Amino acid sequence: MTLFLAADLAAIALVTCLMLALPALAGATLAFGVRVSAGRASDPAVVAERSAYARLTVLAATVATVVSIPVTALITATDRPPAIGVTATALGLVQLALYYRAHRRIRRAKRAGGWQAEGRQGVTVDTTFRTDPVRLPWLWGLPGLAVLLVTAGLGWSRLREPPATLPLWRGFGIDPARRVPATPTAVLEPVIYQLAIGLVVLAMIYVVLRARPDLDAAKPTGSARRYRVYLRGVAVLSLVSAACLNLGLLLSALPLWEIVPFTLFWRVTAYLPIAALLVPWLIWEARVGRAGHRLPALPGEEEEESGVVQRDDDRHWFLAGAVYANRSDPALLVPARLGSSWTLNIGHPVTWLVLATALAVTALALAGVVDLPQKGSLF
């Protein structure tokens, strides 16, 4: 119980730190997903909500820490395997609700005070992001490729003399009590997942590098340079993340192929690369921020001021800046207002097609027409 309680408390601490950092990651002009001018970033209403959100977030974490002890004891007392993160998941939902509460209150203050009418609004466009886009840093993909090749080599050697059965593979861990036939697919399943991760990461990087840039109309030149630095950093960290995920899958594949015995220590070891990839992401986001707004200005950029504030389009954003819907916007992928992330434009026809396809597959699966793969969680 002690090990799982420690893991649960660590998850609570991690979720709380991320939620406390979330308002700061978006920048001063996006107060809890609400667009405000630089002059209104220190408005008493905004400052009060930031303070209240921090206090309530810490209070919720304190309650979750106290509740975690009996919850973990109850779970470990049952025949079911211990579940790490149950309390942390509930805490995250509560803290997201607190974030949305702050969003609603600031938006109400903005409307009551007429902030949206202050200053001339506009947008800035930099066509060099199309003519000279940020290039994919291919060299940073070599570690992930190397891990993939090592895994494929070990899997191929095991495939040459496979046993009759293998333990059931569950991604980052196995179920030694259940055995499955050692088919080529079962033997090479870790390699297949690694290939899928690599392709998905490359596709995501390509789309993000060519998505609409997040520029500040008040400081167009400086924000464009910062955003280029930010995009390259995101691309590099994404490739490093793929390498970490591949390494975790390699470590979990060794007990699957019965190269090493499966132990609790080895299962924890398979998760270490995942935990390690959080560190550079957290450092990067803390130092750079959303769209690179924390990067220091170069000489000449400190005095840059166009006299235009960023266009106020709050009416197109929902769920505290997590969902964007604008039928008149041709962009499919846009930077979200929730932390440092991107989101689909729900008003775009392509998004409708994707959602319709997903709903159709789900409906067919529920009706029994389509059989979806029955597979345990990768984690």
Concise overview:
It contains 10 helices and 10 strands. It has 379 residues and is mainly α.
Walk me through what this model shows.
This protein has 379 residues and is mainly α. It has 3 domains: 1-120, no CATH class; 124-307, no CATH class; 313-379, no CATH class. It contains 10 helices and 10 strands. It has helices spanning 2-25, 44-77, 86-113, 128-131, 142-160, 184-187, 189-209, 220-256, 264-288, 349-366, and strands at residues 30-31, 34-35, 121-122, 165-169, 174-181, 309-310, 317-318, 323-324, 333-335, 342-344. A two-stranded antiparallel sheet has the order 1-2. Strands 3-6 form a two-stranded parallel sheet. The chain has a two-stranded antiparallel sheet with strand order 4-5. Strand 4 (165-169) and strand 5 (174-181) form a beta hairpin. The model has no long low-confidence stretch (mean pLDDT 86). InterPro entries: DUF5808. This is DUF5808 domain-containing protein. Residues 328-352 form the DUF5808 domain. Keywords: Membrane, Transmembrane, Transmembrane helix. The chain crosses the membrane at residues 12-32, 53-77, 83-102, 138-159, 191-209, 229-252, 264-284, 350-370.
